Amino acid sequence: MIIGFAKVKAGWPRKSLLFSYLAFCIYYQRWDVILFLSGMMVAEFDIPEVTVVSKEEEKLPKKQTARQHVFWAMIVLLGMFFVTSPAHEPEKSMGYVWLTEFAGLIYWSGRVRFWPTIGSIVLTCAATRSDLFKWVLNTRLVQYLGDISYALYLVHSPIIRCFAVAVIPELWEIGPQTMTWVWTVVIGFFIILYVPVVLVLSDLTWRFIDTSWVNLARWIEAKCFISSKTPAL
């Protein structure tokens, strides 16, 4: 898709074709493909128009007004509301009843996927537009979590399958005798056992596997392409 759309004229011709394919994927219930194509759509709208500006204007980016901050803060909250739609029986959850009914009109095969998909797109748009949201995403902690996010995605499921199945029943047994079951699971497993182990393994995976393969890919790229600094023969 990226290679195919790269040769389409930028602007509304490419946006129209991309939007048409998005509608096609929505009709055929391909929420995963919709997310990838939506990323392309967001990038398409973020391509800056070629304008001639002075160096002074280029050095002084326009600051958003208080009204714009409030507007984008509301958009972020709306996206978070959509993306946290329950995966199990959302039609019984407060605030999601009529939303789930509406989603069923479009996403009849998997309506629980509809609003999280929309929420992800809304948050991605806000991340490219809101100065406050950009500031939060550019903090060191969030940037670090972004670095290990793919490793975290790969590591967390095996840890759950290997240890949670054995640990949670034991916590269930000791929970009613010492504290409520909720506090037992939250403190005993997710905070004391699960979170530190997953974060450490994710960090190691990112540093020694993910980063190594990225460096290898960049090395191969450097060997396969002619540098712009290399004089033409």
Give a verbal description of the structure.
- The chain is mainly α and 233 residues long.
- The chain has a domain at 140-226.
- 75% of the residues lie in helices and 0% in strands.
- It has helices spanning 2-6, 12-27, 31-46, 55-59, 66-83, 97-106, 114-129, 131-137, 140-147, 149-178, 181-224.
- The protein is globular and about 65 Å long.
- The protein starts with a helix and ends in a 9-residue tail after the last helix.
- The model has no long low-confidence stretch (mean pLDDT 82).
Mean pLDDT: 82
Q: Summarize the main sheet.
A: none
Stretches with pLDDT under 50, minimum 5 residues: none
**Percent helix:** over 70%
Total of DSSP H or I helical runs spanning 4+ residues: 11
Instruction: State the order of secondary-structure elements, H for helix, E for strand.
Output: HHHHHHHHHHH
Global geometry: globular
Percentage of residues in DSSP E strands: under 5%
Oligomerization: single chain
User: Whole-number radius of gyration?
Assistant: 23 Å
Descriptive key words:
233 residues; 11 helices; 75% helix; globular
